[in-house]
Amino acid sequence: MQPYLAGNGHNLRQTDYQLQSSLVATIKRRFRTYGYLETGTSTFQDYDMYSSMVGTVRKHNMIKTIDPSGDVLVLRPDMTIPIARRMANEKASYRRLFYVQDVFRQLKDESNPKEFTQAGVECFGEDTPENDAETIALAVHVLQDLEFDQFKVEIGHAGFFKDLIDELPLSPEELEKLQELIQSKNLVEIRPFLNNLSVEESIVKAIETIPLLYGKPRDVIERAAAITLNSKMERTVAYLQQVYTLLKAYGIENCVVFDLGLINHMDYYSGVIFQGYITGYSKPVLMGGRYNDLAEQFGAEIPAIGFGCIIDHLLNAKKEAGQTAQTEETVDLVIYYDQNRSSDALPYANQLRNQGYQVLTQTADSTGNTPAKFIIWLTDEESLLIHRQKQTAFQNIGELEDLLQTEMREN
Amino acid sequence: MDTITLALAKGRTAEDSIKLLEKTGIYFDDFSNKSRKLVFYDNTGRVKLIFVKAVDVPTYVENGAADMGIVGKDNIMEAEADIYEILDLRLGQCKFAVAGFNDDQPTSGNILTVASKYPAVAKTHFLKKGVPVETIKLNGSVELAPIIGLADVIVDIVETGNTIKENGLTILEELDSISTRLIVNKASFTTKSESVHAFINTLQTGLE
To answer: For residue A152, what is the nearest residue in chain B, using CA coordinates?
Structure first.
């Protein structure tokens, strides 16, 4: 046997594919009920496009390939950017799109998987608190559909922090360090760091509070209102209040927490951002937010919001919660037939398949032994249907179909 | 409330942390220094303590094998883990430092070699200064490296500076201060918020 290096892809077991496809089917069904249409993007994307865009995927996280003409391509590192670009190219302004495709990223450890299946939505053309609340409600709805007992969607706002530090003359390196400190809720080091840069006391106080703006929405809004330093921040707080009121109307206020210290490394987010966690699973299973300025980089102005679920994480969370797919290891029917009855057996099989039964055909002398709900014997002497040790003879396909239907009804 | 798993670095940090926890009313009666057990529960059964190697604490917490951890900033920096770093327990205070022979700057054209138990920290520090370096990972007796000629300088944690001096080296540069921190898994912070926040608050009161 060829020893084959595994571990860089999805690394799924056979039965995981059944579970994955049932998750994907559930998610797709839910996306459609909110009026989303399926879309997709090419696996190969232009490296120059990604590397020239600010605040997207980091260069070293992309997986590059070179085409025969020497151009560098990357394996699709994200879905949102190519979809937004197409929107701009086609001069479309309103669309609701969903996708289920693989994205490829090289993470810091070589042995980490490089391939993730992502299922997500992008809603273009609306920019209202109603639209934000609906998108968050959809995320919650998906997690409910997947029957996770306990989960939380954490909601933040990219603008709140940006407006606060707008007033500070920070170098890109200092800004990155500050974001890092806030992202890790590192209260210990924020103050000394800002004092070193001789930042005004009122701003230091406000920034220091950001990591603590976490918890029940009403509470967070109240505390955030107390540290606003300009009218932009006041507007953001009022906006979040509106979103919260709508989330209550959706009846999902218990599934969400607010965290204004939430900063996504994807810098294109401009408004509400959110991520979903499942109790007992250590990584976020879905992430998203509003990105009104992204299409601008392609010369169009289209407000948008979206999120993506990482199917691999959902799958692992399912397995860790002990929920696995009911894998069908039995088929509906196996037809065993003598060689000279093949002109009956094969058309029978086809007719039954057309009606949706799973059917296997085997010659009577074969050694195959597939578990089946019904077994049919077609021999020189007779035609028999066997079900739960009960044998019933039949003459033709019509009788067989009737028998099957009766048996199915009785069970 | 949910049980929370707390990863502790074996050794002195563990003893100091347990003393701190006892001050806040969380007792581990069956814990003793000599025990070789690696898992303990507190008297209320709400906190499960696991003992792991210090360098592994951020890994356990990042991957959710532990909800929280108590570990030195040195190990957090080296692990570059994606976690919340909530509290400074003000234990084990020391500093990262670059040490070497005073006059022995590498001649131009030679890349500076740095030996350290913390190659990631060393690399990040010199990268920020724009100095290209080669790092050599060592697991102990780092001071030996410049003496033997394995490296030009070392990056290590320094408390008193005695070890450095006794080996004829000098501190060339002082870097970040280090102390013991409470780190929290990001998912646990959200999904087990009630018990995690209660624990953080108790610990915070204990510190004051």
So the answer is: B191
Query: Please, which residues bridge with residue B88 across strands?
Result: B181
Residue B8 belongs to domain spanning: 4-92+179-207
Identify the CATH assignment for A14-320 out of 3.30.390.50, 3.40.640.10, 3.30.930.10, 3.40.50.300. Answer: 3.30.930.10
What are φ and ψ of residue A260, in 5° steps? -80, -5
Contact B80, A108 (CB under 8 A): yes
Interface test with chain A among B84, B190, B193, by most A beta carbons within 10 Å: B190
Q: Contact at 8 Å (CB) between A9 and A115?
A: yes
Compute how many other C-beta atoms are within 10 angstroms of the C-beta atom of residue A154. 24
Helix (H, G, I), strand (E, B) or coil at A220: helix
B83 contact A CB<8A: yes
Nearest CB to A283 within list B85, B88, B187: B187
Question: In this structure, are residues A344 and A378 in contact, taking their beta carbons and an 8 Å threshold?
Answer: yes
List phi, psi (to 5°) of A236: -60, -45
Helix (H, G, I), strand (E, B) or coil at A59: helix
What ipTM goes with this model? 0.81
Q: List phi, psi (to 5°) of A385.
A: -110, 125
Q: What is the pLDDT of residues A16-34, one digit of tens each?
A: 888 899 999 999 999 999 9
* Chain A residues within an 8 Å CB radius of B91: none
pLDDT per residue over B49-100, tens digit each? Answer: 999 999 999 999 999 999 999 999 999 999 988 899 999 988 888 999 999 9
8 Å CB contact of B193 and A215: yes
pTM, whole model, 2 decimals?
Answer: 0.84
Domain A331-410 fold is Rossmann fold (3.40.50)
Q: Which residue has the tokens 């273009």?
A: A124
CATH code, domain with B66 = 3.40.190.10
Verify whether the Cβ–Cβ distance B188 to A188 is below 8 Å.
Answer: no
In this complex, which of B64, B84, B86 lies closest to A282 when CB atoms are compared?
B64
By residue count, chain A amounts to 411
